[in-house]
Amino acid sequence: MSGSSISSARSNAARLPRARSCCSRFEIESRAMETINMLLPPLEAWVATIFARAGLGEDDARLAARRLLLADITGVRTHGIARLPSYWRQLARRGLNPRPDIKCGWHGTVLVIDADLGLGQIVGPKALALAMDALGPTRPFVPFLIRNAGHLGAVGSHLLDVAESGRVGFLSQVTQPVMAPGGATRPAIGNNPIAFAAPRPDGPPLLIDFAMSNVARGKIHVALRDGLPIPEGWAIDAEGRPTTDPTAALAGSILPAAGHKGLALAMIVEVLAGVLTGARPLLSEGGAPGGVGAFGFVFDPAALIGKDAFDQNMQAWTQRYLAAVGGNGRIPGERAAELRAQADQVGIAIERNLFEQLAELGREGGAVLPA
């Protein structure tokens, strides 16, 4: 990226458009529901161009584009292309390092990775690749820590490659404080997401990905962008009172899933991904700040119990589960697989307000958003 381009990015970073107000609630909701369909190849090429204009190398820009859009493709819309304007701003002001020197080493039997403030969409896949490369006959289980990383986005997106290669993976990330129990007057802890993936012999990989809050904070940002209220039970304001106002919610805290259970799970991740890495992401740094920590592991089930035994055991419990729930449930990961196949054919739908934000970003970055 040229000096003039990065200077322009820094000076204009705050000028990306925010939610536009309309004359009535009906007009706001109608605009929020309006979508524009975009095919994946030109959209992915455009996202890669934006990342390259932000300073990423060509290969990393393509990798980041694919991984970012994988969140949209698999239905995690809050952590996909909607995050691109935020990442652009962070890269422009060097809150994220566009060309990180990612290093790794062993601390006993734990693989420790220093991400050098790299964008999470390149750190995640590279970290998992390093962990999988370390697997072998005498090392069937590899735990790892990631230090000093950018926000990893949809953590489950980094595990699909693991499961599709026949391995099992787990990944957790500590976030800035955004969550608290009712009555709290400031955020107390991150919503600290976890993800788990495992191969299945008779279906797409089992893929579980969730944060410890009632709702992803990104959904509140979407409501703010689209000028809509949020449902009751999502958040509290800065006085600890329930709110349906997204602005008040972002100034306050989101509520934990399942009350004390969500808080307890977040505390476990705080130890594994925060205490062990020294991560201290701050709410004052803005949404999805860099400097986060992560903990995870990969293992090769074939080396532990044999591929045939693993496949038989996986098939046995999943079939038993599906027989019990009938049409009232499915195995996590099946919907994501269906959405991936659909997106390959028809692309993805982007809300009108987000499309306009991306179009403005394209003008700022000198890359016209494909229509």
From TrEMBL:
Which SUPFAM superfamilies does this one have? L-sulfolactate dehydrogenase-like (SSF89733)
Cross-referenced InterPro entries: Mal/L-sulf/L-lact_DH-like_ah, Mal/L-sulf/L-lact_DH-like_NADP, Mal/L-sulfo/L-lacto_DH-like_sf, Malate/L-lactate_DH-like
Its family remark reads:
Belongs to the LDH2/MDH2 oxidoreductase family.
The record's keywords, sorted A to Z, are: Oxidoreductase, Plasmid
Protein name as catalogued: Ldh family oxidoreductase
Please provide an example of a Pfam family that matches this protein in its UniProt record. Ldh_2
Query: Which Gene Ontology molecular function entries are recorded, alphabetically?
Result: oxidoreductase activity
